[in-house]
Specification:
Elements lengths: L1 E6 L12 E9 L2 E3 L3 H11 L10 E3 L4 E2 L4 E3 L5 E7 L3 H4 L6 E4 L2 E5 L3 E4 L6 E6 L7 H15 L3 E6 L8 E6 L2 E11 L3 H10 L13 E2 L7
Antiparallel strand pairs: 1-12, 2-7, 2-9, 2-10, 3-6, 4-7, 5-6, 8-9, 11-14, 11-15, 12-14, 13-14
Length: 221
């Protein structure tokens, strides 16, 4: 079961953007906090303050095995992903080879692989956050309006759990808890699929929100 809404977007697609790439950085370490969205971003900013000015930068958090005690165990496949426009590659690449500390945990960042974005008919984001919309129905309508403004057409829905409840997700930023939803969008054409991966929807994309990947493509989705 899914909570869903159909829409057909307007043709106001906005301005042409520089092509985007995704840098996938391997990481080495033992553990990280399960909720490390803000900690990862803050650690990157500490190393490269110029990242604050990157309007279109998106950072996806690091996957691992949850220990059910607020931490994740990192594996050989653990990595984090950064999406930027091509001119910013050299800036982001400065993270390679660095060590960062998130809470009490330290990780080593490896040399990234760089990929062009590829279209997919269905995309999924583990969490999308839209300020002021913390209930499924109003969230879907707000998300629809954002997609409409980008000129993207498709079907947007919130996957549901085994009890039929929409997947509600939270993340902490300092003392605040932010509510969002896992979000899938299907029926995308190639152009709209790439645009959604470039721009996302909602806020906090530097914290891993609104980071869309091909559904079932692994990673943090």
């Amino acid at each position: 079961m899914v909570a869903s809404v159909n829409f057909f977007a307007s043709q106001d697609a906005g301005n042409e953007l520089e092509p985007f790439v995704e840098l996938t950085f391997p990481v080495r370490g033992k553990y990280l906090p399960a909720d490390h969205n803000y900690g990862l971003y803050a650690a990157c900013i500490h190393l490269i303050p110029e990242l604050r000015q990157q309007k279109y930068m998106s950072i996806l958090t690091i996957p691992g095995f949850p220990d059910k005690q607020g931490k994740i165990l990192l594996t050989e496949k653990s990595c984090f992903r950064v999406r930027v426009q091509i001119p910013q590659i050299s800036l982001i690449y400065q993270l390679a080879g660095k060590s960062i500390r998130i809470g009490i945990h330290e990780i080593q960042i490896g040399i990234p692989q760089i990929f062009m974005l590829q279209p997919a008919k269905k995309l999924k984001s583990r969490i999308v956050v839209i300020k002021g919309y913390s209930e499924p129905k109003s969230f879907l309508l707000a998300a629809q309006r954002q997609l409409n403004s980008l000129g993207i057409s498709g079907e947007i829905y919130i996957p549901t759990d085994k009890n039929g409840e929409p997947y509600r997700k939270t993340l902490k930023v300092k003392r605040y808890t932010i509510v969002g939803f896992t979000t899938e969008i299907s029926g995308l054409n190639d152009e709209d699929s790439i645009k959604l991966q470039q721009l996302g929807i909602g806020g906090k994309r530097h914290l891993g929100c609104g980071y869309f990947q091909p559904s079932g493509g692994g990673g943090n989705v």
